[in-house]
Amino acid sequence: MEKKRQIHSSLKVLLVSDIEKAKKFYSEILGCEVTDWWVVRDGFTGLAIKLLEASDPKEVRPNPPAAGDKHGFDLYCYVENWNSLDELYHEFNEKGAQIAIQPWVDENNGPWKEFAVKDLDGYCIAFGGTDGT
Length: 133
Known about the structure:
It holds the Pfam family Glyoxalase. This is VOC family protein. It comes from Mesobacillus boroniphilus. The chain is of the alpha/beta class. Helices cover 17% and strands 33% of the residues. It has helices spanning 19-28, 82-94; strands spanning 12-16, 33-34, 38-41, 47-53, 75-78, 98-106, 112-118, 124-129. Strands 1-4-3-2 form a four-stranded mixed β-sheet, with helices on one face. A four-stranded mixed β-sheet has the order 5-8-7-6, covered by helices on one side. Strand 2 and strand 3 form a beta hairpin. The radius of gyration is 16 Å and the shape is globular.
């Protein structure tokens, strides 16, 4: 018997220091649809974030790096193929996104290609995937 699908999608909740500045960043730099608190690109099964303003900016705490890593990741977005990944990288770079990790290929895993950006509060959002073949 096939198990019924119960979870359609999930999203990340980010505590931000200034919600208006964050909404502008996600709209203008990352090309998301933005409402009073939702940040969505490619629907709720794509990049989906709920923004909440911190009562104190000190409460905003991006993830620290894991053991042996240089960057902590707060969100990871999978892409369909490397063409889509390259298009996103060029779009974000042209709009002035802070590129935390330049595109690189891990030949031992996939091969897998990824890059990452940082938002205004230092949250690291990575994008990656296989070449789609």
